[in-house]
Amino acid sequence: MTRSVAPPISDAQPKVGFVSLGCPKALVDSERILTRLKGEGYDTSASYAGADVIVVNTCGFLDSAKEESLNAIGEALAENGKVIVTGCMGGEEAMIRARFPNVAAVTGAHQYDAVMDAVHNVVPPKPDPFRPLVPEDSAGVRLTPKHYAYLKISEGCDHRCSFCIIPSLRGDLASRPVADVLREAEILAKSGVKELLVVSQDTSAYGLDIRYAQSEWRGQNWNASFEDLSRGLGELGIWVRMHYVYPYPHVNSVIPLMAEGKILPYLDIPFQHASPKILKAMKRPGNQEKTLDRILSWREICPDLTLRSTFVVGFPGETEADFNFLLDWLEAAQIDRVGAFAYENVEGAAAKLLPDHVPEEVKQDRLARFMAVASRISAQKLQAKVGRIEDCLVDDIRNDGTAIARTKGDAPEIDGHIFLKGFSGLKAGDLVKARVTKADAYDLWGEPEGLIKLNRVPGATPRRMHNLITRC
Q: Name one GO molecular function term (predicted).
């Protein structure tokens, strides 16, 4: 769960405070609303006191996320008093108004027009005939660092997983025209973005709802398909990272693009479990036995492929045998980056009504055991990188001069880092090559490729040498 507060844009016009909660897809919604506000001349405030109205973009995926959203609404009301609620919890307007009757408006997820109307009602924009419109080639307002951006290619989902209420919050799959996506990506690349993170509810289903309709970009017709989208993004010459990919057979066609360096050798696939019985109860697609074969074939084509996934332990009806099946599958699949959660009931999800709920202490025990295996696999895989040369993208520079960076196998905020020492003059957004010198279970350490060091025996008499050469 991330929380982002928009930076100031200007000083003259009414000010909107913005609290953004939840996943990267919600963050894109926040960016789009802020871009429209900017286009109408609104400023943003980084404090409650400086804002004329507060917009809270909520998350409603889990009960714990809902509680955080409700706390954020309450905080905004207490600190400011004028609050507009939007996002995934907006579909539960009656519940929100029962707890906070004074909210100015409640809208659902990605209902941009309704949010703009609500802002206009609370604080109308000031007419300014000299204010230029936001140029068509503008990248708009972004809440991420300048060197990476999320690219949302579709809304909604056609799956009906028993633990998930996303379709009731965001609707069925609704893909964007491929030319619109590629043009947005091109604008972001021209604005200095070094990495695009492709997000949706079901990235590999992209285009299914619009029958893979063609549209034109750069003088060529492109299909609204996962493969054509990947090929088009691969022409931009920047990092492209794929998130929320179901392991459908047609994903195979994108692996060669990764091997060729067109897009990053990285797939974020939410496997959730491996036991056939539990997957059936979850109403998840896919055959896990075939998935193991597919993973093996992917790695044969692209040996540097990094797989990230999330899993749920303690799902209703999960026995010790089901859990051990999951552990064995994880060992066989050797997933590089792993996140896991103990099952949590979600109001409105079918899984809440299933029998044989697992006791909380058992869920927590299984979560700890699962993560112990995942950590061991991660540590072994990262240790194998020691001595290798890795391409790295710098995210930040610490006060001691150490650069906090990521390799091609690390997505921002959810994966590990590589800590770079020995470089000079680095800044956020720089791409560099580094030799990995050290690893633990989650992170790497690196130095400039070609760094030559003196390795003198302590106390030995220094001998006369030529100048030490360091190539950074």
A: metal ion binding
